Amino acid sequence: MITTYKIDNKPEECSVCFNDYDDNQLRPRNLPCGHTFCSQCIDNAIKNGQLSCPSCRAEHTATASTQFPISYAVEAFVRKLKNIQLTTEEAVPAKPYEGPARGISKTLRSLVQEQKSIISSLITSCEEVLSQLGEYRGQLGDWKTHHLQLQDRLYALVEQNKSAMKLLELEDTSVVDMTPQGEEGKTQLQAMLGSLDTVNTPQEVGTTIDTADGCKMKVEDWLRKCQELFPDVNTVHTSVKVQETIREALEMTTTETGATADPVHLGDSASSIMNKVKEITGQIPQKQLTVEDLRRMREPVKRLVEAGRVVAVQEDQDGRRSARITLQDGQLYLHPLLRQPTPADAYTLQESEVVGLLDPSCTLAFLDLGWAGSTRGRVTIRLTPDTPLARQFVLLCTGQRGPTYRNTKLFGVVDKGQPGERVRGGDYESNDGEGGAALLPDLQEQYWESDRAGAVCSRYGPGGPKSAQFAIITRDHQDGLQWPRCIGDVVSGLDVVRAAVNHSNITEVTVVDCGVVLPR
User: Fold this and answer.
1) Nearest to 285 by CA among 300, 269, 270
2) How far apart are CA 484 and CA 445, in angstroms?
3) Which helix or strand (DSSP H or E) is residue 74 part of?
4) Is the dihedral of CA 36, 39, 40, 45 positive or negative?
5) How far is CA 492 from the centre of its chain?
6) CA neighbours closer than 13 Å in the CB half-sphere of residue 353
7) At what angle do helices 106-198 and 72-90 cross, to 10 degrees?
């Protein structure tokens, strides 16, 4: 562990070793807590995969300094500082200003000032581009380091492959050595069969049987050795694992290199060098992720979603709420808005824009059911057509109005084991069937009826005080009976609902999560 060091007024120095930053072992790197130190000091401070920030004591997980981004801003500042010092040292004292030259007209003086302004602007542009070139050079250095690291890993794979091949060669040699003895034993046994067919006297029988017994013992001993020696567990296990590892690496490489990338248009040539680099590499500036990026789901956005770094947010008078956006089996899911901290490195989208992707005439919602301490499965419901009760169901799955079905309980089963069996839930207020007030003012509409298992219906009428409650039919009706006020049907996960019905206590079944499916 390293001691906490006082930050001084020399930002060009590492505050741990007091050495100036450079482009090699002393490159400045930013920790997640925001403090900057040189690569060498970070490597020295890492113990058992943990790093304690020398300034604020924040704990970070790392095995090498290369896991933290280079502070290109510090590098650019150091380069500019060195240029300023060099210019100051080499500068020739300027002559005192003696005022405008006599005999020069106002027009000429104006041209001189214009030229000076142009030159000053060009100097500023040069400084900016030089700074960008320095930052770009730092990025190139990072990439070269990464290539060397990958190269080392490839060499390690090659060495593992060589070791596996040596084991296979030794095993093959052992098999070759054992084979002649078995072939010889087989030949002798075949000869014994012929001899036993031709014996004519008791003496010949005894002699032949004794010889056959000796031959049998040798062959049985050979068989036992083969069973004991082959296969060599270490050889086979090592060979299979190395093959799998290399095959996966090659398949990943083939996938990446064989993929047809969309053409990259660098746009205006005036765009900064690093912005062009980010555009080529697919990096997305923190504040420039759009709903369209989410819909197209290209690889950089996909990686962000999979890492949990894309959230939908909603601001109101009580503060900010955020909703997770997840990717599962190629499908995007929007979870309910909650009052929870937004990750510092998250890319945020407005909840209203994300919900705007939904097709109002056919929305897929989901309920994750769980009991006995674990989530048992996801129930996906198609809500159609565009009716007030269906819109209310979406609001309670997304939490846009505040209340949500998340953490509510199923509180009853009607006609259990009988035709028309159905489970009840949706009381977001009291969780016992006594609450579930409407979120929309007018829920009157012409709703359809169903007698089929999987239908999702409003348990109470649109004008009732508990219209947010719902019922899911788990067994078909009979005798022409129809369940009214249907707002959707289960498209997947009906088996999860039936398993919940068969649980010993339905009130232990909870909607552990909910939300909507985002179309792509």
Assistant:
1) 300
2) 12
3) helix 72-90
4) positive
5) 25
6) 14
7) 140
For CA atoms 429, 432, 435, 436, the dihedral sign is positive
Query: Which of 169-173, 255-259, 491-495 has the weakest average pLDDT?
Result: 255-259
pTM recorded for the entire structure: 0.51
**Tokens at residue 47, please?**
């113990």
What tokens were used for 323?
Answer: 């909703």
Whether the CB-CB separation of 290 and 300 falls below 8 Å is answered with: no
Q: What is the pLDDT of residues 104-148, one digit of tens each?
A: 788 888 888 888 889 988 888 888 888 888 888 888 888 888 888
Number of Cβ within a 10 Å radius of residue 434: 12
CA distances from 44 to 38, 54, 55, 251, 278 (A): 10, 12, 15, 36, 31
Residue appearing with tokens 């999702």? 456
- Residues 4 and 44: their CA atoms lie apart, in Å, by 14
DSSP calls for 50-70: EEE-TTT--EEE-SSGGGS-B
Eight-class DSSP state of 20: B
Are 146 and 70 a contacting pair, CB within 8 Å?
Answer: no
Half-sphere exposure of 201 (CA within 13 A, CB side): 3
Quick check: helix, strand or coil at residue 375?
strand
Give whole-number Cα distances, 50 to 16, 53, 69, 418, in Å: 17, 10, 17, 59
DSSP E strands in 33-147: the ranges are 36-38, 50-52, 59-61
CB 463 within 8 A of CB 443: yes
Listed residue (438, 413, 415) closest to 501, CA to CA = 413
Residue 324 neighbours by CB distance under 10 Å: 19
- The answer to whether 378 and 492 are in contact (CB under 8 A) is yes
**Helix or strand (DSSP H, E) at 146:** helix 106-198
Q: For residue 301, what are its two tokens?
A: 């956005």
Cα dist. 349→62, 287, 325 in Å?
30, 9, 10
Find residue 374's DSSP bridge partners: 371
Output the average pLDDT for the chain. 85
> CA quadruple 437, 439, 445, 447: dihedral positive or negative?
negative
Taken in order 443, 444, 448, 451, the sign of the CA dihedral is positive
Q: What does each C-alpha distance from 22 to 18, 133, 253, 296 come to in angstroms?
A: 12, 16, 34, 41
- AA identity, residue 317: Q
Tokens 């650019």 label which residue? 76
* Max Cα-Cα span within the chain: 147
Query: Closest by alpha carbon to 285, among 333, 348, 357?
Result: 348
Q: What is the pLDDT of residues 127-138, one digit of tens each?
A: 888 888 888 888
d(CA 54, CA 263): 45
The pair of three-digit structure tokens given for residue 71, joined into one six-digit string? 């502070």
